[in-house]
Amino acid sequence: MSLLDITVTDLRCIEHAQLNVAPGLTLLWGDNGSGKTSLLEAIFLLGRGRSFRTRNTERLIQRGKNHLQVIGRVADPGGRESAVGFEASRTATIARIAGRSAQSLAELSQVFPVQVIEPGVHRLVEEAGYRRRRWMDWAVFHVEPQFIDTWVRYTRALKQRNAALKIEEGEASAWDPELARLGEVIAESRRLFVSRLEPYWQEAVTALSGLAVDLHYLRGWGQDQTLAEALASSRSRDDARHMTHAGPHRADIAIQLHGRPAREVLSRGQQKLVAVAMTLAQLRLLQDLTQTTPTLLLDDPAAELDGERLQRFIGEVLKLRCQLVVTSLQAESRLFGTPERTFRVVQGRVHPV
Ligand SMILES: Nc1ncnc2c1ncn2[C@@H]1O[C@H](COP(=O)(O)OP(=O)(O)OP(=O)(O)O)[C@@H](O)[C@H]1O
Ligand SMILES: [Mg+2]
User: Fold this and answer.
1) pTM of the predicted model over 0.90
2) C-alpha–C-alpha distance, residues 153 and 170, integer Å
3) % of the chain beyond a pLDDT of 70
4) Ion ligand 2 nearby residues (CB, 5 A)
5) Does domain 121-291 have CATH number 1.20.1050.90?
6) What are the residue ranges of CATH 3.40.50.300 in the chain?
7) CA 185 / ligand 2 centre spacing (Å)
8) What is the pLDDT of residues 283-322, one digit of tens each?
9) Do 6 and 56 touch, CB atoms closer than 8 A?
10) Cα angle 43, 156, 182; round to 5
11) Relative to the CA of 63, which ligand 1 atom is closest?
C-alpha cells in the first residue's frame, strides 16, 4: 500500500498544500515551525483518523477556520487506487473512502496503513499503558480484521457495566458473561500477536540497542483466573470505585531490562531505540503475515541518536523497503539515500524542489 498524492487544507499552518508523494523516499525540508510535522500529521490522519501529537483533532484546525480537510489517493500492491479523505470540524469528524463515508476509522486504517516514528516515540516506553495497547491493537487489527468488531462490542459492554456500577447494586453483573466472553477473545488475539512478535522483537532490539530488553504481555487480570472469575472476585472493589478493574482494557506490555522497568533504567535515547525497535519489529511481522507494507513517516529521525545508533536505525528502516516520508532541517539530508522527491516547506507552503 502506498500514498500517491495528498491535498491538505487548513491544517495548522498549512492553508493549502498539494504533494505527489514518491513510492520510495520523499523528503520534506524546512526551518523550525515551517510545517513539516504538520504535513506528516496530515498523512497520518488519512490512515488513522487522529494525530500523533494530540488526542484533540480540533487543535489541528487552522486558527480562524472551522474545518480542515485532507484528501489522498492510495494504491494497493496490485496498483488498484482508492481515494481516501478525512475532514474535521469543531464538532465532528468524517472519514471517506471512494467518496462514501467510512463505517469506522478501522476501515480507513485498512485502506491506508501508516505508522510514524517521531521525536516523542520514547513515550511508548515511558508513559501509561494506553499507548502500548494502541500500538499492539493497530497490529492485531491488521492481522485479524475482526478484532476491531470484538473490541467495539467489548467497550460497549464495559461502558454499560461501569454505568450500572454507578447506580444500582446487582445490575452490573448482568454484563459479566458478555464481557468475559469478548474479553477472553481480545486477550487471546493480543497474546498471539506478542508471541509472534517475539523473534522480530529480539532481532530488532538487539540490532538497534544491543540491550537485553524483554517484553511481557499482561492481559489485564490475574494469571490463574478466567475473566469471569476475575470479574466476580473484584466485584466489591468495582462497586466501591464504580469501575471495572479486571479485563483487557487494563492490559499492558511490561518492558523490562534485567527485571526492572525500562522507563526507570534506560536513558531517553535508549528508550527511543526500544520504542523504534517495537515499531520496526511490528512492521516486519505485518509484512510477513499480511504482505502489506505500511507507509512509514519519520519526523526528524536523527533527534537524540548518536552517529552509530543512527546508522543502525537507518539500516533497520531500509530493510523494510517501505514508502518513507522523512522530514529534515537540511536540504542535503541523505540519511536514507537520495530522495525520489523533495519538497521545501516555507511558512506552511510546500514547493517541489
Ligand atoms: N491550529 C493552528 N493554526 C495555525 N497555526 C498553527 C496551529 N497549530 C500549530 N500552528 C503553527 O504551525 C507551525 C508549524 O509547526 P510544525 O510543527 O509543523 O513545524 P515543523 O516544520 O515541524 O518545525 P520543527 O522543525 O521545529 O519541528 C508552527 O509555527 C505552529 O505554531
Ligand atoms: Mg517538526
Assistant:
1) yes
2) 22
3) 99
4) 37
5) yes
6) 1-113+293-353
7) 39
8) 999 999 998 899 999 999 998 899 999 999 999 999 999 9
9) no
10) 95
11) 3
